[in-house]
């Protein structure tokens, strides 16, 4: 049954999303007739991975909580990844599993994150091994090393965050550790973790929708900090491309096995320049003046505490959480040198073009006033 999310067919909804404008051709290693499953394949990133896999001639199963698009070439399985009986049929007889399912960071539901991201991922690993799956590609996050302080050109060697800023990040760390530790030549089971950062593009359900809601509520008059902090925002097509490259490079004795890889646009941009370009593209005013970063950070921390105290009486969801304020006011950009070296990664779509495509994809959120 098709469920109630904006119904889009990723193959027809936005012509410019295809890869035809690039001359890139995936290496032909072992791709013909390969079967794979995308867990979370109805989500924002998942749909782009599916699209790319089909273009590359894979046979694709999608496993997700609900079916949100239709495609005759895809076999859909609906269920909860934490339920082995739901998952097993979706991954039987496939060589590769892409795991890009997660509850949204905004849910801030500790038990849910722990159950889906940590326990559920362990279940996926076990189910993959049982089913004879050879490759597992996890969508992790560059934020597994982020603790709210500046990261400039961070490499994959940075230690995991000792004090993750939210439950989402905490469980992304646990999840990544499990997946990388599961890599085993003896068991012919190869794993890799892709760490994207700030994924954006048409059909995203977080960045642009939250930004537009914030602008409509009149809360984007000021920027947080001085507006100079560089950040990675990564176009979803480039992220999908990184996932396919990782799968293609996962085989016995490959240096890719058991490692994490940053996948970025390799073009860090000041946080507020990026936000302003989206806001102005959609005809919303962009912030011109900055507020002191630390002042806003401590206000957000205080507000969070207050919300926690009031939770038994009434639930509030503040727009400016400490995590969001930190993301808006610090430097956080990452080196993707390892992905370039070991799997020949190069972003396919530059930031400037990606922003234009994104603004075009959100025409329905344009400010008409
Ligand atoms: N967006 C970003 O900026 C970044 C995202 N990531 C990671 O990328 C991945 C994809 O994110 P994104 O596409 O933005 O997220 P989406 O929410 O769009 O997609 C996630 C999909 O997973 C599904 N899902 C959630 N829980 C379960 C479950 N228990 N069983 C089966 N399916 C489930 C969701 O279904 P439903 O919607 O019904 O809940 C949804 O379709 C995630 O792992 C995220 O952590 C990493 C870095 C940055
Ligand atoms: C309210 C405004 C100041 C900011 C609006 C935009 C934000 C909603 C987004 C800016 C950076 C984004 C981001 C993520 C979610 C959306 C933003 C906070 C992630 C937390 C998504 C999951 C990850 O793994 C890391 C991302 C970092 C950047």
From TrEMBL:
TM ranges: 291-310
Catalysed reaction, written as an equation: a 3beta-hydroxysteroid-4alpha-carboxylate + NAD(+) = a 3-oxosteroid + CO2 + NADH; 4beta-methylzymosterol-4alpha-carboxylate + NADP(+) = 3-dehydro-4-methylzymosterol + CO2 + NADPH; 4alpha-carboxyzymosterol + NADP(+) = zymosterone + CO2 + NADPH; a 3beta-hydroxysteroid-4alpha-carboxylate + NADP(+) = a 3-oxosteroid + CO2 + NADPH
GO BP: cholesterol biosynthetic process
Membrane topology of the entry: Single-pass membrane protein
UniProt source species: Branchiostoma lanceolatum (Common lancelet)
Source lineage: Eukaryota, Metazoa, Chordata, Cephalochordata, Leptocardii
Domain 3-beta hydroxysteroid dehydrogenase/isomerase, chain residue ranges per copy: 38-288
Protein's pathway: Steroid biosynthesis; zymosterol biosynthesis; zymosterol from lanosterol: step 4/6
Known EC number: 1.1.1.170
Enzyme class: oxidoreductase
Protein's UniProt name: Sterol-4-alpha-carboxylate 3-dehydrogenase, decarboxylating
GO terms for cellular component: endoplasmic reticulum membrane; lipid droplet
SUPFAM superfamilies: NAD(P)-binding Rossmann-fold domains (SSF51735)
Domain of life, per lineage: Eukaryota
Subunit and interaction comment: Homodimer.
């Amino acid at each position: 049954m098709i469920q109630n999310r904006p119904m889009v067919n990723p193959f027809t909804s936005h012509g410019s999303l295809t890869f035809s404008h690039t001359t890139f051709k995936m290496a032909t290693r072992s791709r013909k007739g390969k079967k794979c499953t995308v867990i979370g394949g109805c989500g924002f990133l998942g749909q782009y991975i599916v699209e790319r896999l089909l273009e590359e001639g894979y046979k694709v199963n999608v496993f997700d909580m609900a079916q949100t698009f239709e495609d005759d070439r895809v076999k859909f399985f609906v269920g909860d990844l934490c339920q082995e009986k739901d998952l097993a049929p979706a991954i039987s007889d496939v060589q590769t599993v892409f795991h890009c399912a997660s509850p949204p960071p905004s849910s801030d539901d500790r038990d849910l994150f722990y159950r889906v991201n940590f326990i559920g991922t362990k279940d996926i690993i076990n189910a993959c091994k049982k089913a004879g799956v050879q490759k597992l590609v996890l969508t992790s996050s560059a934020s597994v090393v982020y603790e709210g302080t500046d990261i400039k050109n961070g490499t994959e060697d940075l230690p995991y965050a000792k004090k993750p800023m939210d439950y989402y990040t905490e469980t992304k760390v646990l999840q990544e550790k499990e997946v990388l530790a599961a890599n085993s030549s003896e068991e012919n089971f190869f794993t890799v973790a892709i760490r994207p950062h700030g994924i954006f593009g048409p059909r995203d359900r977080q960045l642009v929708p939250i930004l537009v809601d914030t602008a409509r509520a009149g809360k984007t008059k000021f920027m947080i900090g001085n507006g100079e902090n560089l950040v990675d925002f990564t176009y979803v097509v480039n992220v999908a491309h990184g996932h396919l490259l990782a799968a293609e490079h996962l085989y016995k004795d490959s240096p890719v096995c058991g490692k994490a890889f940053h996948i970025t646009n390799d073009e860090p941009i000041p946080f507020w320049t990026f936000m302003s370009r989206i806001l102005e593209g959609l005809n919303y005013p962009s912030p011109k003046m900055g507020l002191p970063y630390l002042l806003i950070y401590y206000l957000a921390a205080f507000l969070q505490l207050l919300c926690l105290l009031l939770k038994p009486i009434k639930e509030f969801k503040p727009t400016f959480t400490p995590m969001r304020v930190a993301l808006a006011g610090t430097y956080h950009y990452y080196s993707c040198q390892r992905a370039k070296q070991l799997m020949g990664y190069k972003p396919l779509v530059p930031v400037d073009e990606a922003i234009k495509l994104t603004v075009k994809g959100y025409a329905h959120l344009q400010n008409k006033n």
